[in-house]
Amino acid sequence: MEYSSEHYIVEGRLKRPLYHGTSSLFLDSIKKYGLGGRNIIEELGVIKTLKRVVQLAEQQLKNNDNYSGLEWMYQNLVNQTSANQNWQHGQVYVSASKGLANQYALNPYGSELINETLRLYDLLHDTSSLGFSENPVLILRGENISP
Q1: How far apart are CA 22 and CA 107, in angstroms?
Q2: Which of 15, 93, 112, 118 has its CA 20 to 30 A from that of 143?
Q3: Spatial separation of the C-alpha atoms in residues 108 and 106, rounded to whole Å
Q4: Contacting residues for 35 by C-beta, under 8 A, at least 6 apart
Q5: pLDDT value at 124 more than 60
Q6: Degrees (nearest 5) of the Cα angle 129, 81, 90?
Q7: How much is the pTM?
Q8: Is residue 85 over pLDDT 90?
Q9: pLDDT tens per residue across span 97-109
């Protein structure tokens, strides 16, 4: 049976729990500002850095299987057109599936965008054009974090 949103909303209230999975990296911010109280993706310049990292990957990783097999995913992330099974509220993604939220929490950086940006960055041979001051998300590399 297919469900529509009317099954989940009664008298204007959501009657289904939603879940969000992330890492301990954002715990202090969530406690202080609430879930979605800050736009971490924007503050850390993740989209800008991902676009630059993808440009470098296209030049440096043409024959790298770790990149070529996932090139479409990086392009979708850059264009933000990838379909998903989640709902977006501001910059926060939530899921009706506790299991899916747990999977997202297992991303090393708690965010698919941050995780994939840093994973692709680590594949690059020459990162000299990516400074930390212009790409603050790079500062997260090596942080001690847990789901």
Answers
A1: 8
A2: 93
A3: 6
A4: 20, 92
A5: yes
A6: 90
A7: 0.76
A8: no
A9: 899 888 888 888 8
* Residue 15 token pair: 């009657």
Q: Which of 92, 90, 117 is nearest to 22 (CA)?
A: 92
Residue that has been written with the tokens 């990957």 in this structure: 57
Instruction: Measure the CA–CA gap between 147 and 109, rounded to whole angstroms.
Output: 8
Report the alpha-carbon distance of residue 9 to residue 4 in Å, rounded: 9
Query: What is d(CA 105, CA 25) in angstroms, rounded to the nearest whole number?
Result: 11
Instruction: Please name the residue ranges forming H helices in 1-147.
Output: 27-33, 40-43, 46-60, 65-68, 71-79, 98-105, 112-123
DSSP string covering 32-75: HH-TTSS-HHHHTTHHHHHHHHHHHHHHH-TT-HHHHTTHHHHH
| Cα-to-chain-centroid distance, residue 107 | 9
CA 137 – CA 40 distance, rounded (Å): 9
HSE of 61, CA atoms in CB hemisphere, 13 A: 23
Distance (Å, rounded) from C-alpha 99 to C-alpha 27?
20
C-alpha angle 62/64/66, rounded to 5°?
125
